[in-house]
Amino acid sequence: MVEKDGDGTLLTFLWRDRGPTNDVLVLVNKLADRNRLDLSRMSRLPGTDLWHLTYRVRDDWQGSYQLAPDEEPAPPAERDAARWRRVATNLMAGPLNPETLPQSRPPHRSVAAGPGAAAGPRWWRPRHGTPAGTVDVVELPRRVWRYTPPGYRPAAGPYPLLVLLDGDVWGPLLPVARSWTT
Questions:
Q1: Do the beta carbons of residue 177 and residue 167 sit within 8 Å?
Q2: pLDDT band at 175; cut points 50, 70, 90
Q3: pTM here?
Q4: From 26's CA, which of 15, 71, 75, 135 has a CA 20 to 30 Å away?
């Protein structure tokens, strides 16, 4: 659910019980802290089967998210940190959101966006007629995938920089360049 709020946007994630649910986490890219999963815990709307968590974001925010319902009784001696790590293994895309981020295998990620985010096809989808740059692999202490735009000339001055960690995973799925190689 997306609501305008002054200069920002309220982005509310919802979950409807499918059965007895103890808790639900929503792990939102750029908003969730994997070291503090308890902060991603949804609240049940009293007297209903609805769970919710709201974030205030910029109007142009867009990102992916996954839900993790806890539908199993917690072992009696389970501590909170261990419990949240266990619940986070139940990750799934939002069942009512048809827009997902391409991935090679489940669990898939749903996509959410504020009202000021780029309209039309999402940034990761190739656009017809857009010239292709090139990608090569550079071996530093860590393997890095370097994209250069079409017509790249080092002497022309500085170019914008895109850093895509885990390029072997994300590159083929998010077509930054049609010539992506791993």
A1: no
A2: low
A3: 0.69
A4: 75
Exposed e or buried b per residue across 37-75, where buried means at least 16 C-beta atoms within 10 angstroms of its C-beta = beebebebeeeeeebbbebebeeebbbbbbbbbbeeeee
Count CB-CB contacts under 10 A for residue 117: 19
3-state secondary structure the chain: CEEEECCEEEEEEEEECCCCCCEEEEEECCCCCCCCHHHHECEECCCCCEEEEEEEEECCCEEEEEEEEECCCCCCCCCHHHHHHHHHHHCECCCCCCCEECCCCCCCEEEEECCCCCCCCCCCCCCCCCCCCEEEEEECCCEEEEEECCCCCHHHCCCCCCCCCCHHHHHHHCCCCCCCCC
Q: For the chain, what is the radius of gyration of the CA atoms?
A: 20
CB 17 within 8 A of CB 49: yes
Please, what sign has the CA dihedral across residues 81, 87, 92, 95? negative
Instruction: Name the residue with tokens 């802290």.
Output: 33
Residues 6 or more apart from 60 whose CB is under 8 A from it? 114, 116, 117, 118
Any bridge partners for residue 13, and if so which?
53
